[in-house]
Amino acid sequence: MQAPDSGYGLWLLAAINTAFFIFFAWSFYKPLTRWDWRGFGMFSAFVVALFAEMYGFPLTLYVLGGWLSANYPQVNWLSHDAGHLLEMWFGWRANPHFGPFHMASFVLIGGGFWLLSAAWPVLYRAQREGRMARDGVYARMRHPQYVAFVLVLTGFLLQWPTLLTLASYPVLVWAYARLARREEKDCLGRFGDEYVRYMQQVPAFIPRRRRGPAPSQGEVR
């Protein structure tokens, strides 16, 4: 299933893209605690698996090659563009980089990195000052950093789904939710009733439609 012009076997390109996105995420996230490093490590593993198939070895196309060729004979599954499986399955015959799923992936990935960039300064200041992070995006949700990672992973999944990333995605979402709960146990131990009130006022992952009044500076500190 590999042709000279297939666009695979480009391991240097895979390594460059992997390093770029991992460094890009790190520049926004800058993990400090053990929970931060675990969350970032899981994201990095997903990115490695993604770009290894996108530019290196197309494992998914090899495994599904017979079924894909039989059911979609009009698609050249030897081509690199065929790795955009959702565009191929739903009959998008123009450039897949301008397909609906690919464009939606840009929105999700961009939104995820924006959320990371908005959450990190708030969390960093709070950690340095030994207080809770309650302002900025933390006034809308308690775990914006994990929501951001899930948005980015979802975007990558829409853009280039593979068997490995499809299998790991629900595991990563579950792991992020578990890390969030562990973080909350730590915060309850440190801040007690103050964090209990915060949990009652602010949802964990999905912000409410209407935002209540922002806490005053005195309340934040």
Automatic annotation (TrEMBL):
Membrane topology: Multi-pass membrane protein
TM ranges: 6-28, 40-64, 101-124, 145-169
Protein location: Membrane
Cellular component terms per the entry's GO annotation: membrane
Gene3D superfamilies: 1.20.120.1630
Keywords: Membrane, Methyltransferase, Transferase, Transmembrane, Transmembrane helix
Broad class of where this protein is predominantly found: membrane
The protein's name in its UniProt record: Isoprenylcysteine carboxylmethyltransferase family protein
Organism: Thermomonas fusca
